[in-house]
Amino acid sequence: MEIDFNTLRPGERYKVLASLVTPRPIAWVTTVDGTGRVNAAPFSFFNVFGSNPPIVAFAPGNKSDAARGVPAVPKDTARNIRETKEFVVNLVDETVGEAMVQTAAELEHGVSEIEAAGLHTAPSTLVGAPRILESPVAFECREWSTLEVGSNRLVIGTVHHVHVRDGILDPETLRLNPGQFAPLGRMASPDWYCKTGDQFEMPRPE
Ligand SMILES: Cc1cc2nc3c(=O)[nH]c(=O)nc-3n(C[C@H](O)[C@H](O)[C@H](O)COP(=O)(O)O)c2cc1C
């Protein structure tokens, strides 16, 4: 099968890319708006891109109204980061998978997905947005820049503080303790995921 990407509509390109570029990590992003109201939503167009400085990036799009001809309105996450310049990337393991999916509901701006999903927050150390207490790892981030590429929006953030549930990392080596972290991966769009329990080691050539 050959696909001329230039002739596809954006929604069709999304289906192909999001189904094939897998598994993707999931950034479960918490933000606050200018009045301190907390928002949470998952984003799997996400990854880490460097350690000096430590940077992460994710791509919050516009609310779906845009597809219906209404002027484009950024998702609440993007809107809050525009206002506060801060966010927390919480990671998602098997224990919080279902709660994470619930927070993808498009609620009205200012309505907290956290409470609706039965989750709890804890204050962050450096940024105004709280972290999700049930999440195994949380990166406190400051917006470094937001790139607009066509109608894509790429939020790039620097990481300033990390919360890691005890037992996941070896405190001496900072390496992962085998079997202690089971992140979920996003698979084919819209609703497929993978577990990451079946891992193996493959040393590189000298
Ligand atoms: C696993 C998962 C991954 C998602 N990834 C993205 C993404 O990368 N970009 C995006 O704009 N929306 C993504 N979504 C949809 C958003 O989470 C959803 O639109 C959410 O309501 C946005 O919330 P907000 O308006 O509070 O920011 C994803 C949803 C799920 C369940």
Question: What do you see in this structure?
Answer:
The protein is of the alpha+beta class and 206 residues long. It has one domain (25-188): Roll (Pnp Oxidase, Chain A), CATH 2.30.110.10. It contains four helices and eleven strands. It has helices at 10-20, 76-84, 97-102, 113-116; strands at residues 27-32, 38-43, 46-51, 54-58, 86-90, 121-122, 131-132, 137-149, 152-164, 185-186, 193-194. A seven-stranded antiparallel sheet has the order 2-1-5-8-9-4-3, with helices on one face. A two-stranded antiparallel ribbon has the order 6-7. A hairpin with a 6-residue loop joins strand 10 and strand 11. The longest helix has 11 residues, at 10-20. The protein is globular. Flavin mononucleotide binds next to strand 2 and helix 2.
